[in-house]
Structures are given as structure tokens and as C-alpha cells.
Amino acid sequence: MDKKTNKSIKTNKKPNKSNKTDKKTKKTNKNEFNNITIIGTGAWGTAIAKVLSESGNNVTMYGVDNKEIKDINQHGMNKKYFGQSKINTIIRATNDIDKALLKSKYIVFALPSAFLKDILKILKNKLKHKVIFINLVKGIDPSNKKPWSFTISKILKDKSSGLASIIGPSFAIDVFNKKQTIVNVVSKSDSVCKKVADLFSVPYFRVVRCLDEVGAETIAAYKNLLAIGMGMVFENTKSINTISAVLTQGIKEIEIISKNNGGKSSTIIEFCGIGDIFLTCTSDLSRNFTFGKNLYRKNSSKSFKLSKSTVEGYTLYSIVKKEIIKNKNLPLLKSICLVLSKEVEPKNIVTNTFELINKTTTQN
Ligand SMILES: NC(=O)c1ccc[n+]([C@@H]2O[C@H](COP(=O)([O-])OP(=O)(O)OC[C@H]3O[C@@H](n4cnc5c(N)ncnc54)[C@H](O)[C@@H]3O)[C@@H](O)[C@H]2O)c1
């Protein structure tokens, strides 16, 4: 680990036992200290709300789905995502944005990227004080081709006392079920990294700081496109040689893009690097990976009717396909884009990639 940029965080806070959480929350309420507003009452927002609440913070969730809000407030559950499992009855949810923002010191974005800009505009008008923003939304803003954190800091410049992103191998269901998880907190500012890391102090959710915002955000966006390709590759072959080769090729190509954008080489071996790539590119819990698998199985344009808006790798494809297709150093990502633009059939993903790799090697 690069000692200058990436350091493990040790917090002084001790994890709360559930009966102690009440006391601590009351104390922080009184001081209006760690009041955290989470935008989005979906799977990731709820899992993160649970972690932050168990860490002794005062958590309010803002949502637009009244069924989810009612479920959280009346039953201490979010059945749509987590069945009958309890969250934490201290967490409150509301569809009233003014109420949600009132005492907020931190605002967490936990909604699909398609709705992020709407909420940024609302916050720009409604927020009366400065806060630290915590971004959980990965991907690229189509309007400027930059990571969403750039758009957040641009639109909310006057309302921001810092911005950090949480990126790493972390499916909501595993975090909800307290499975051991390590992620990076990524920010340009080390002091913001420390403040945000300090909010998470439960033993099963560890946060390691990383100052390479550009590298981490680039990897987080492009790994979704790679995951679509890996879904196809897993369907195409059972050869672990081939799967490992293609995955490694994908990691190399993402590193090239990250470095071209100004990211650091060392970030690829971080939790937000190889950790998140491995999770997204090998698990059926990944929407992008299963999208790739379905595309391969159907092997027809019908598969494109799958809900593309929630497949962030597909959104990225539509933004960056031209640049990728003309870049000779990206044979795998190019093959994935050619399949998505229906120029190569899914069943030819591996052969097409290897042909392009051979051409690249010959040219070298
Ligand atoms: N699910 C995961 O494991 C996971 C892990 C890491 C990161 N993420 C990221 O977190 C974000 C949210 O993912 P998710 O899985 O929780 O999605 P989800 O579909 O489970 O939930 C999205 C939530 O956002 C709400 N929403 C939609 N528009 C809104 C608006 N305008 N204002 C407020 N709320 C609105 C929806 O009602 C819903 O409650 C995505 O960007 C995703 O990439 C998810």
C-alpha cells in the first residue's frame, strides 16, 4: 500500500452495542453533531444507514417511495430489499426534503445515477448550510464525461465543506448481513477522508482511505463495462485459463484508462481497484455481470430490452464507445463495445478479443 496516499484508518470510537446506540444517538442529537442524511431508501442506502446508525450516528433517510418510507418508520424494515430482517428502529425516513436536510452535517447520495442531477439541483436551492457530501454513486456523467463526484462538487460548490466517495467490494446484502467488508473512502482531502472514515466504526465494515480520486472513480466506472464482458465470457467458456486471461486483460486496460485520466498505478491494487473489479466481474449479484450473461444466452437484440437504466456499464458504453473503439490498446473493452453496438455477436467475444490482442502484440 502506498504509505503517502493509502492508509488504514483506526478510529477511536468503539462499536456500539444496540442498547448503547440509543444513548449515544441522543447525545449527538442534542449537540446536533453527526446528523447524517441519506438520499435514497433503496438497497445500498438502507445497508449504509444501518452501518452508520450502529456506529452511533443519527441517520435520516430521504426517499420518494412512500412504501419504503412507511416500512422503515413503522416496521424498522425495508422488506423490498431485505425481507423481514430488522434495520434499526432509530433510523427515520421521510419524503420531506426540508425535514431531511434540517440538521444535516453529512449528506450521502445513495440513488441511481439517472436521478442524481435532479436531487443536486434541489439541494442547491434548499440547503441553508455547508455539509460534507458522501457519494455512493459510481459512473460517468454523460454531459461532461467525468465521474459523478466532479458534477456533485461543481453543482454544490457553495454548499460543500468536503466530498468523499465510498468505493470498494460491497454488495448491500452482505453489508446488511454484517459480512466482513473493506472499502476505500476516496477524497482529494485527507482530513475529509478521516472525518468520513470516522463515521463508520463497526467491526464488520472497515474503511481505508485513498487520495487518488481520479483513479478510484475511473476504475469504479469502467469496471461495470468490463463486468458486462465478463458475464459473456463466463457463459462462453468454462476454461479458467481463458477467464483469468480475459479478466487480467480487462484490469490492464482499465489501468491504462485510469492513468490516462491522471490516476495513480497503485490504485488498481486497492479495494476500490482489484477488489471491486473482482466482485463486479464474477458475481451473479452484479447487475452488469448478469446483463452480460443474459446477452450471451439470448444472443439477439431482444436482450437489449433488459432494463438498461440500472445497468451502469451500458450507460458508460453509450458515453465512451467512440473513444474505446478507436483505441488500439483496449482490445477487450473494444470487443465488449462492438458486441453492444451489435457489430460482433456475443458468442464471438473471446475469439474477437484474442484476435485484437494478437494484432496489438504484433504491432508492438
Ligand atoms: N446495491 C449495492 O450493493 C450497491 C453497492 C455499491 C454502490 N451502489 C450504488 O448505490 C446507488 C444506489 O443503488 P441501490 O442498489 O441502492 O439502488 P436501488 O434501486 O435499490 O434503490 C434506489 C433508491 O433510490 C430512490 N430514488 C430514486 N429517485 C430518487 C430521487 N429523485 N430522490 C430520492 N430517492 C430516489 C428509489 O426510490 C430507491 O429507494 C447506485 O448508484 C449504485 O450503483 C449500490
Uncertain parts:
1-32
Distance between the termini: 31 Å
Q: What is the helix/strand order?
A: EHEHEHHEHEHEEEHEHEHEHHHHHHH
Helix content, binned percent: 40-55%
As for the CATH topology of the largest domain, it is: Rossmann fold
CATH class of the largest domain: Alpha Beta
- Judged by helices, strands and strand pairing, the structural class is alpha/beta
Domain tally = 2
Task: List the ligand species.
Answer: nicotinamide-adenine-dinucleotide
- Cα gyration radius (Å): 21 Å
Strand content: 5-15%
Mean pLDDT: 90
Strand numbers in spatial order across the main sheet? 1-11-10-9-6-5-2-3-4
Summary, kept brief:
The protein is an alpha/beta fold and 364 residues long.
What are the salient characteristics of this protein?
364 residues, alpha/beta, Rossmann fold, N-(1-d-carboxylethyl)-l-norvaline Dehydrogenase, domain 2, 2 domains, 9-stranded mixed sheet, two-stranded antiparallel ribbon, 16 helices, 51% helix, globular, disordered N terminus, binds nicotinamide-adenine-dinucleotide
What does this protein look like?
The chain is α/β, with parallel strands linked by helices and 364 residues long. It folds into two domains: 6-211, 3-Layer(aba) Sandwich (Rossmann fold); 215-363, N-(1-d-carboxylethyl)-l-norvaline Dehydrogenase, domain 2 (Orthogonal Bundle), CATH 1.10.1040. Helix content is 51%, strand content 13%. Helix 10 (213-236) runs parallel beside helix 12 (271-282) and helix 14 crosses helix 15 (331-340). Nicotinamide-adenine-dinucleotide is lined by residues 39-45, 63-65, 68, 110-113, 115, 118-119, 136-138, 170-172, 312.
